[in-house]
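Hey, quick one: can you model this chain's 3D structure?
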Amino acid sequence: MKPSYNTELPLILLDVKKANEILDVAKWNERDVDGVRMKMMGGKKVRLELELAFPFYNPEWERWL
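Sure thing. Here's the predicted structure for all 65 residues.
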């Protein structure tokens, strides 16, 4: 099966320390009881949430669910 992504893109390794530094600089430096990053926005505390969206379904992904 042909990869469903651009194989020419460079691999970006996970760097938790660098990720934490970036979030701290962006003022996401508070955490809730679950350890999720938070910050004040418009007078309210907002949790940092990320959503991954895939443009199509690939049956190969089911083995990771």
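One thing worth noting: The two ends are 19 Å apart (CA to CA).
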